[in-house]
Specification:
231 residues, Jelly Rolls, seven-stranded mixed β-sheet, seven-stranded antiparallel β-sheet, 0% helix, 53% strand, globular
Length: 231
């Protein structure tokens, strides 16, 4: 079963400095039919104006993954990390017992386009931790593991039995994915357009997958996708 979440059907917020699209209920956007999917709780696509950002704020007991598509994002947190994420970089924060952090667009003239993703942790109360990494290899027309519970293949380590893959597909190329029995998947189209088992998906569309043993993702234009393997 494939259930499509069209980009235009998401919750939208325009704060002037921030334009956000919420796949699932978040902040002032609430939809009881879209509270998350499995352990995937937040899928926000954000555009942050130059010189603006999120002030210092707290999180706890959440696995937070950030991916920058365009521009840059300056990060500071209560663990002492101070980094700038650029396009193609992933950041993973395990909020655990509690962290405070800020996110800021350091550019004077270029907006930042990013995805922020939250997954429920497999265990609460863990020690907070941070990772940041760029994945440039094994992306073209294949799935690259970028986050996993055991840090396999140099991926980020998330504290949940979930795996995140990234791929850049050329027009006409396909990738096939086997889904283990009892597992689920979420596909997010970051750019371009694809079909998922024949279902059309465009930029910023998402799709929840259950009770499917195999997925075929075919690019109908040059595309970038993020695929989640979920319990």
């Amino acid at each position: 079963m494939i259930t499509v979440r069209k980009a235009g059907d998401r919750g939208h917020a325009d704060h002037g400095w921030l334009k956000a699209a919420h796949t699932f209920s978040f902040a002032s956007y609430y939809d009881s039919d879209h509270m998350g999917f499995r352990v995937l709780r937040v899928m926000n696509e954000d555009r942050v104006a130059p010189g603006k950002g999120f002030g210092t704020h707290p999180h706890d007991n959440m696995e937070i993954v950030t991916y920058v598509l365009e521009g840059a994002l300056e990060h500071k947190d209560s663990m002492g990390n101070g980094e700038v994420l650029t396009p193609g970089e992933f950041q993973r924060m395990s909020a655990g017992t509690g962290i405070r952090h800020s996110e800021f667009n350091p550019s004077a003239d270029e907006p930042t386009h990013l995805y922020q993703i939250w997954l429920l942790p497999g265990e609460e109360g863990i020690e907070p931790s941070y990772e940041q990494k760029r994945f440039d290899d094994q992306l073209e027309n294949q799935l690259r593991l970028v986050a996993s519970p055991d840090g396999a293949d140099g991926s980020l380590t998330i504290h949940q039995d979930a795996r995140i893959y990234l791929s850049r597909l050329s027009n006409g190329k396909t990738v096939d994915v086997e889904i283990a029995e009892g597992r689920h998947a979420w596909l997010q189209v970051l750019r371009g357009s694809v079909t998922l088992n024949g279902t059309d998906l465009k930029t910023s569309d998402g799709a929840a997958v259950s009770e499917e043993s195999k997925l075929t993702v075919a690019a109908t234009a040059d595309a970038e996708i993020m695929l989640f393997d979920l319990p």
